[in-house]
Structures are given as structure tokens and as C-alpha cells.
Amino acid sequence: MEELLKTNDPTVISFATALLRAEDIDCFVFDVHTSILEGSLGVLPRRLMVARRDLFMARAILDDNGISLSERA
What we know:
Organism: Pikeienuella piscinae
InterPro entries: DUF2007, N-reg_PII-like_a/b
Oligomer: single chain
CATH superfamily: UreE, C-terminal domain
Strand content: 15-25%
Domain DUF2007: 1-64
CATH architecture: 2-Layer Sandwich
Protein name: DUF2007 domain-containing protein
Largest sheet: 3 strands, antiparallel
Low-confidence stretches: none
Pfam families: DUF2007 (PF09413)
């Protein structure tokens, strides 16, 4: 698994997930439980992960839809 996106904004994660799944790219959100434990402060980011084979296409899809990947690892 490769990190595609890291953000504190749950709406960005939801939108990116919907875009990727619409293109049949499996993605997984990491750190959900950790960010829930810290409450509603939004301090701990969530990571959107994809398989290495899908990374190039996933980056292109998010870029085409205006999701900044500047925070990516």
C-alpha cells in the first residue's frame, strides 16, 4: 500500500474515496480510529492508501478533480 493523500479534512477523504471507487480503484483510509480518539480537534490526519499498481492512476484522478496532493508522502 502506498500513501496517496494525508489530510485532516474528512470531506476531502470522502470525495477522493468516491472518485477512486468510481474508477474501480480500491482505497483504504488509515488512522480513522486514532483521529476519532483525539476528538473533534482535527489534529491527527487520516491517510488514504492505494495499491502501488494503482498509484499513478489515482494521482491523476485526484489531480484532474482539483484535489491537492501537496501533502502526500
